[in-house]
Design a protein that fits this description.
Blueprint: H1 2-13, H2 18-33, H3 39-49, H4 56-69, H5 72-84, H6 90-106, H7 109-114, H8 116-126, H9 131-142, H10 152-161, H11 165-171, H12 173-194, H13 204-229, H14 234-252, H15 257-271, H16 277-295, H17 301-334, H18 337-348, H19 352-367, H20 372-389, H21 394-408, H22 416-425, H23 429-436, H24 440-452, H25 455-463
C-alpha cells in the first residue's frame, strides 16, 4: 500500500501530471511486488474505458463545444440580461443565471468558465465592476456546470458506483437551484453593501418577453402530457409539440427558447424512455447541430471542424486520466489498500453524519490536488463500501462528492477553473485566489445543506421512480 500511494505522492510532488503519476506508481508497484503480471496494465487500461456510459463523455464535450460556436452563449447572455439585468448588481445576477442555463448543455465547470465566462467578465469590467468581483462570481457560478444535468462527473461516478446516471441527473436539479439562490443572495449582499444599481433599464417589454420564453419552455412537457392524455402516443405528442415550438421560435425569433430547451429535451427524453443517459449525449449533439446549422445558421465547416478537433483533444486527455486512474484504483483494491483505508475510517466512527463530515474534508483536500475524473475514479472504490455499510444513499453521496470536487477546482495548487479564469481575466493566480475566497461562503453553505438534508438530492429521483 505504501509503495503504491507513496510513489504516487512522490511523483505528484515532483510536478508530474496526475495521470502519469498514477500510471507510473502503478507500474513501479507491479514491477517491485512481482505479484501482478505486466500484461495487467494493458488489460486494466482497456477495461477502464470499455464502458457504454463512457461514450457520453465525448458527446457531451462535443455538445458544449458546438453550443459555443453556434452563438448560443451570446443568446443566453442576452436572455439573462433581459430577465435579471434590472436587479441591483445586475450583471452579477446575469452571470449566475447564464451559468444555470449553460450548465444544462455543457456538463463541465471548465467549459462554463472558458466559454460563457469570457463574455461575462468582459461585460462586467466594461460596466465598472472590479476584475476581482467579476472573476469571483464567474468562478462560483461555474461550479453549477456539473451539478445541473447533464454532468460528466455524474457519468463517471454512476459508472463506477453502479447507480442510475438518470437518477444522478435528476438529483442535481434541486441542489442546483439551492446553489443558484445562495449565489444570487450573495450578489445582492455585495450590491447593497457597495451601493450598486442595476445594469439594464427595467423594461416591462423585455421582462415580459423573457418570461414568455420561460413559460413556453415549461409548457412544453405539460403540452406533451396533455396530448398523451387525449390519446396520442408519446412519439406523436412530442413531435407535434416540438414542431409547434420550432414554428413559434422561427416566427417570433425568441432570444433563447431553443437553448433553454436543451435540458428539457435531455431530461424529458430519459424520463419518457426515449434514450438512456448515454444516448442523451448524442441527442444533445444533434440538437446543437440543429441550432447551429439550421436555426441560427452560425456554424461553418471550419468552426465545426475546430469544435470536433477540440473535442478529440479534450476526450483524449479525459480518457487517458480514466485509464491511468482505473489501474491505480484496481491496484488499491487488489492490494487491500482500499479495504485497509475503509477499515481505518470505520474504526474511527460508525456514525454516518460524522463520516460525511470527514468525507467532505477528504474530498475537498483531494480536489485541490487531483483532477475531478481521477479523484472520482480513485475515491469511489475506497469510500463507496463505507457509504453502503452506513446506509447512505449512493446517489446522495454522488452529489456530495461532485460538489466537493467542484469547490476543489477553485483552489490552488491545481484548480483548473482558477487557472482558466486567471488567464481569461489576465490576473495573477494569487489575485484570482483572493477574488474567489468570499464566494466559498455560499458554496460551503450549499455543501452543508446538501450533505445533511438528503431530501434535497433524493426527492426528485424518488418522485420520478428512480434511485430507490
Amino acid at each position: 500500500m505504501w509503495l503504491l500511494i507513496g510513489g504516487f505522492l512522490f511523483l505528484m510532488l515532483c510536478g508530474v501530471p496526475v495521470a502519469i503519476a498514477m500510471a507510473g506508481a502503478s507500474l513501479v508497484y507491479i514491477l517491485v511486488s512481482g505479484t501482478v503480471p505486466d500484461v495487467v496494465i494493458a488489460q486494466r487500461m482497456i477495461a477502464g474505458v470499455e464502458s457504454f456510459p463512457l461514450l457520453a463523455v465525448p458527446f457531451f464535450i462535443l455538445a458544449g463545444n458546438l453550443m459555443n460556436i453556434a452563438g448560443v452563449t451570446g443568446r443566453i447572455y442576452a436572455f439573462a440580461v433581459a430577465l435579471v439585468g434590472w436587479m441591483r448588481g445586475g450583471l452579477g445576477q446575469v452571470n449566475i443565471i447564464g451559468s444555470v442555463i449553460f450548465s444544462g448543455m455543457s456538463g463541465t465547470a471548465i467549459a462554463d468558465a472558458a466559454g460563457l465566462g469570457t463574455i461575462e467578465i468582459k461585460a462586467m469590467k466594461d460596466h465598472g465592476y472590479s476584475t476581482e468581483f467579476s472573476v469571483g462570481v464567474t468562478a462560483a457560478s461555474a461550479t453549477l456546470g456539473p451539478i445541473i444535468p447533464p454532468s460528466l462527473p455524474f457519468v463517471i461516478y454512476g459508472m463506477l458506483a453502479n447507480v442510475s446516471i438518470g437518477a444522478l441527473f435528476l438529483g442535481g436539479v434541486v441542489p442546483g437551484a439551492v446553489m443558484t439562490l445562495l449565489m444570487m443572495a450573495t450578489v445582492a449582499y455585495f450590491a447593497r453593501r457597495n451601493g450598486w444599481g442595476s445594469d439594464a433599464a427595467f423594461e416591462w417589454g423585455k421582462l415580459l418577453s423573457a418570461g414568455v420564453e420561460v413559460v413556453i419552455v415549461l409548457a412544453f412537457p405539460a403540452a406533451v402530457y396533455v396530448m398523451m392524455a387525449l390519446g396520442l402516443s408519446t412519439n406523436q405528442a412530442v413531435l407535434i409539440a416540438l414542431a409547434v415550438l420550432v414554428a413559434l421560435d422561427w416566427y417570433f425569433d425568441f432570444s433563447a427558447v431553443m437553448a433553454l430547451m436543451t435540458p428539457v429535451i435531455l431530461i424529458g427524453g430519459m424520463t419518457l424512455g426515449w434514450f438512456t443517459p448515454t444516448e442523451a449525449a448524442v441527442a444533445a449533439v444533434i440538437w446543437s447541430l440543429f441550432l447551429g446549422l439550421v436555426r441560427y445558421r452560425s456554424m461553418t465547416l471550419k468552426t465545426l471542424a475546430k469544435a470536433t478537433f477540440d473535442t478529440i483533444e479534450t476526450t483524449a486527455s479525459v480518457l487517458f486520466i480514466v485509464t491511468a486512474a482505473s489501474i491505480f484504483a484496481w491496484l488499491l483494491t487488489a492490494s487491500q489498500a482500499a479495504q485497509m483505508l475503509s477499515d481505518a475510517i470505520l474504526g474511527f466512527t460508525q456514525n454516518k453524519w460524522v463520516f460525511l463530515a470527514l468525507a467532505n474534508l477528504l474530498i475537498l483536500f483531494v480536489g485541490c490536488f487531483i483532477d475531478t475524473i481521477a479523484a472520482i475514479t480513485i475515491l469511489v472504490p475506497i469510500l463507496l463500501p463505507i457509504v453502503l455499510k452506513l446506509g447512505i444513499d449512493p446517489i446522495h453521496f454522488g452529489l456530495i462528492m461532485t460538489l466537493n470536487l467542484m469547490i476543489g477546482l477553485l483552489h490552488p495548487p491545481l484548480g483548473m477553473v482558477l487557472f482558466v479564469l486567471a488567464r481569461v481575466a489576465r490576473l495573477s493566480v494569487e489575485r484570482t485566489t483572493m477574488a474567489i475566497l468570499p464566494w466559498l461562503v455560499p458554496l460551503m453553505i450549499a455543501l452543508l445543506a446538501i450533505t445533511y438534508i438528503p431530501g434535497l438530492t433524493l426527492w426528485l429521483p424518488h418522485a420520478m421512480g428512480l434511485g430507490r
